[in-house]
């Protein structure tokens, strides 16, 4: 440990770290030890989220770990010839930052303040306990013990409302300050509790008001699984994808690139190979694993044969488990055709593009932006103009006929995609499922199940927003197609892989011959 702080530099360290910066001494100290490399011409990025690789580099320097050119360690997302492999190997082999269940290090991923506490306690073998834990660090949260250690050693002092915000992504500023306090006790700030005056007798003491937790999200006891990519396609079997499907099964995915790269024959090939899609943030159930694939069920997509939801195979890297409980958070439902989640507080660096009907918990509203919680990478930023915010899904106001029809019309001319449920490509039932879900109504995912629910409507009593169905054998066979009635004998629908979303007559040709009935889901 280093005890002297008298040799603090008065020279600029970074553009955004001036002499009046409250923690300049801490950053100067790290620079003096070679842990930070100052550059007065550049910003340090105080409020930027720290990445796992950046943390590894700082910890390797702070601990003086040996960085070997050769290692037998296998890291699935960092090849041995990568320039940062030796640093990552050193920190992983010491058990300070661990690989995920897929053997990946995720070097460019952000991490939470709670995880930052874990890295520091593991790295420096810190110990200690506290009798006055932060109010938002619950005992069942897996990082609570590590946060308590930092608190006991006056390394972490928390926020004025006695919170630590363990689930919020840690910034470069915060991690650097914590690291400096670990290395040099002179930087630690001992917080002296303020005595609570005894209420006068005989007046009874008022019931104390609980200190509110800073954010609606909190540690939970139950693990839940969520989609952690823009859109994931559920395949009928694992490992049946083609080279052209690479953009749809990698992490991150690029659905726009995938759909544009396929020719018509390749799009038709998807029939009965993919079954549906799930969007970023959708909750799923894990059914079975096979190699790098996992069979999941999408909870919001009803099918009668699987109680957990619509089943199918996805790359295991497309889903993530978390115990974070966001049930008390409001929700944002994306109602733009598509939009971006932004990575940093400047809202300039895109985290991922997201689709219409993506639903995410809202931690905070700030001006024109929503702070939303992602399944695995903390808070990101969503333009308020691109989403609707409600207390919860049950609070979404029921739509009018016009709401449903106008929402569907924005996708006119969008190319058809078999099994598609996103704004990057819909199939016939996918577009109707998505539009209704966007407006607070969950209907079955597939056309033949959509035809079994709702209220039956005669053809002469059709109203805009009703679902119209078509079946083989002159309408008496199995339902194979669905459209959205828009009035004047017309429907909006996504016909097939050779076509686009369009409006056309339902009273001509095969549609007239195979008409099988209608259902109403609007009250």
Automatic annotation (TrEMBL):
The UniProt record lists the keyword Cell membrane: no
Domain called SLH: residue spans: 10-73, 74-129, 130-193
Keyword Protease: yes
Domain of life of the organism encoding this protein: Bacteria
Domain NlpC/P60 per the UniProt entry, residue ranges: 398-522
GO biological-process terms attached to the record: proteolysis
Pfam family, one: SLH
GO molecular function: cysteine-type peptidase activity
UniProt keywords, alphabetically: Hydrolase, Protease, Signal, Thiol protease
Family under the similarity heading: Belongs to the peptidase C40 family.
Name the UniProt record assigns to this protein: S-layer homology domain-containing protein
């Amino acid at each position: 440990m280093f005890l002297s702080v008298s040799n603090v530099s008065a020279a600029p360290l970074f553009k955004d770290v001036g002499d009046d910066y409250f923690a300049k001494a801490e950053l100067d100290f790290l620079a003096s030890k070679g842990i930070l490399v100052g550059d007065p011409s550049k910003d340090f990025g105080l409020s930027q989220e720290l990445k796992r690789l950046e943390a590894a580099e700082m910890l390797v320097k702070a601990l003086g770990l040996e960085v070997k050119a050769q290692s037998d360690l296998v890291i699935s997302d960092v090849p041995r010839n990568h320039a940062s492999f030796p640093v990552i190997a050193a920190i992983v082999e010491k058990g300070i930052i661990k690989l995920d269940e897929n053997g990946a290090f995720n070097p460019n991923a952000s991490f939470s303040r709670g995880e930052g506490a874990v890295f520091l306690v593991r790295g420096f073998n810190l110990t200690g306990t506290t009798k006055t834990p932060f109010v938002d660090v619950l005992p069942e949260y897996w990082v609570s013990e590590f946060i308590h250690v930092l608190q006991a050693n006056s390394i972490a002092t928390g926020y004025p409302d006695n919170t630590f915000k363990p689930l919020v992504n840690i910034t470069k500023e915060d991690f650097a300050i914590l690291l400096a306090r670990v290395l040099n006790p002179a930087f630690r700030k001992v917080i002296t509790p303020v005595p609570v005056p005894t209420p006068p007798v005989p007046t009874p003491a008022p019931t104390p008001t609980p200190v509110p937790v800073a954010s609606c999200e909190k540690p939970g006891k139950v693990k839940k699984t969520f989609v952690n990519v823009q859109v994931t396609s559920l395949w009928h079997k694992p490992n049946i994808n083609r080279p052209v499907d690479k953009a749809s099964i990698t992490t991150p995915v690029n659905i726009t690139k995938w759909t544009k790269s396929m020719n018509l024959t390749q799009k038709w090939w998807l029939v009965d190979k993919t079954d549906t899609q799930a969007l970023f943030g959708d909750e799923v159930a894990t059914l079975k694993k096979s190699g790098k694939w996992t069979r999941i069920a999408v909870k919001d997509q009803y099918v009668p044969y699987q109680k957990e939801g619509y089943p199918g195979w996805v790359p295991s890297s497309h889903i993530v488990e978390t115990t974070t409980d966001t049930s008390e958070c409001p929700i944002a439902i994306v109602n733009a055709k598509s939009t971006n989640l932004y990575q940093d507080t400047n809202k300039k660096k895109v985290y991922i593009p997201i689709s219409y009907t993506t639903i995410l918990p809202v931690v905070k509203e700030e001006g024109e932006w929503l702070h939303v919680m992602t399944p695995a990478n903390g808070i990101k930023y969503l333009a308020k103009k691109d989403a609707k915010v409600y207390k919860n899904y049950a609070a979404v106001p029921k739509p009018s006929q016009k709401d449903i029809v106008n929402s569907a019309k924005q996708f006119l001319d969008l190319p058809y995609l078999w099994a598609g449920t996103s704004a990057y490509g819909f199939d016939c039932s996918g577009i109707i499922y998505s539009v209704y879900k966007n407006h607070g109504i969950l209907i079955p995912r597939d056309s033949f199940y959509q035809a079994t629910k709702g209220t039956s409507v005669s053809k002469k009593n059709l109203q805009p927003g009703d679902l119209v169905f078509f079946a083989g054998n002159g309408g008496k066979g199995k339902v194979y197609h669905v459209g959205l009635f828009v009035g004047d004998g017309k429907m909006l629908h996504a016909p097939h892989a050779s076509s686009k979303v369009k409006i056309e007559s339902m009273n001509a040709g095969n549609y007239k011959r195979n008409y099988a009935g209608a259902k109403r889901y609007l009250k």
